[in-house]
Design goal:
The protein has 227 residues and is an alpha/beta fold. The protein has two domains: 189 residues, Rossmann fold, CATH 3.40.50.300; 31 residues, no CATH class. It has nine helices and eleven strands. Helix 1 packs across helix 7 and helix 5 runs antiparallel to helix 6. The two termini are 20 Å apart. The model has no long low-confidence stretch (mean pLDDT 82).
Length: 227
């Protein structure tokens, strides 16, 4: 019998703006109650219908820097003139509860997590083409053309970071991409180094112990096993 580790897994999901990683994660959370999404903090202003405590914890730059000094974040990074960070304490609590924790973070933050927790699962979400990426950025209709161009240029550079991740998933069709991420998580949980213990059934244990201790299996034991 296989006994899985009691603690949950840390799953880091990154990708360029417009890759659709947020949509993929939303679908994952709908289908799996053992997943918990960590909400990041940011110093940027909310976009569109974003709400504090839902998409992000929105902080002033002054408050963000103060929390850095208080060692509040597991990791933080500055991205396009705004701070982004991952609150530490809640993540630790959720992992201890046995929940798998998803971090949707920028590439800079993911690199820091890899230094701190190298055994975490790192997944990179890609758009199917650069043309589709630009189309998605424009379709958001939340930023002016100059900011969209900057995001596209940044995304182009970020794609080169894919080799630093364990897995890459192309988000060409949302349900297909979600199934791939699910399969990755399932496969990771089957890895030998993620198993806490393996125990055999009683009869198998008897044979095992007999072999290890170089003892003969008497007829009574043999007859019981045959049953």
């Amino acid at each position: 019998m296989i006994k899985q580790k009691a603690t949950g897994e840390l799953i880091v999901i990154s990708g360029p703006s417009g890759a659709g990683k947020g949509t993929v994660i939303s679908k994952l959370l709908e289908d799996n109650k053992d997943l918990w999404l960590s909400i990041s903090a940011t110093s940027r202003k909310p976009r569109g219908k974003e709400k504090d405590g839902v998409e992000y914890y929105f902080l002033s730059e002054e408050d963000f820097v103060k929390k850095i000094d208080e060692d509040y974040f597991l990791e933080y990074a500055k991205y396009q003139d705004n701070y982004y960070g991952t609150p530490k304490s809640t993540i630790v609590d959720k992992l201890k509860e046995g929940l798998d924790v998803i971090l949707e973070i920028e590439i800079q933050g993911a690199a820091k997590i890899k230094e701190l927790v190298p055994e975490a699962i790192f997944i990179f979400i890609l758009p199917p083409t650069e043309k589709e990426l630009l189309k998605r950025l424009i379709g958001r209709n939340t930023e002016d053309s100059n900011k969209i161009i900057k995001r596209f240029e940044r995304a182009y550079k970020e794609i080169n970071e894919v080799t630093k991740y364990n897995y890459v998933v192309v988000n060409d069709e949302i349900d297909n991409a979600v199934e791939k991420v699910k399969s990755i998580i399932k496969a990771e949980k089957c890895r030998v180094d993620r198993i806490e213990d393996i125990t055999l059934a009683n009869q198998e244990e008897i044979i095992h112990e007999a072999i290890i201790n170089k003892k003969f299996i008497d007829k009574t034991i043999y007859d019981n096993i045959k049953k």
